[in-house]
Design a protein that fits this description.
This protein is mainly α and 91 residues long. It has five helices and two strands, in the order E-E-H-H-H-H-H. The chain has helices at 21-27, 39-46, 53-56, 61-65, 74-84, and strands at 2-4, 10-12. The protein has a two-stranded antiparallel sheet. It is elongated and about 45 Å long. It starts with a strand and ends in a 7-residue tail after the last helix. The mean pLDDT is 89.
Length: 91
């Protein structure tokens, strides 16, 4: 199904998801830990005010998994990113 976003980008989507892939690519961060994550994971964190790795470390895994759009497969990647920065999820 062809759709057009509010910015005028035309794209094909087979689902009802309203997210424009062109807009998502344009707003993807270039230089922080969020740039290493898939769009749904990144949006889930951003929608919950998490924009730094330090802020992520103030949440438990259970809290992060409860975010809309966050899947279990994201946790190992987040754990690795935390570990690389000398941090862990809150216990």
């Amino acid at each position: 199904m062809q759709k057009t976003c509010s910015k005028g980008h035309t794209f094909n989507k087979s689902s009802e998801c309203p997210t424009c892939p062109i807009c998502e690519a344009e707003r993807k961060p270039k230089d922080n830990f969020l740039s290493l994550l898939a769009a749904p994971t990144r949006r889930a964190l951003e929608n919950n005010g998490i924009k730094t790795i330090e802020k992520l470390s103030s949440f438990t895994e259970k809290e992060v998994l409860a975010f809309h759009g966050m899947g279990k497969s994201s946790i190992p990647k987040l754990q690795k990113l935390l570990s690389e920065n000398g941090l862990t999820f809150k216990q």
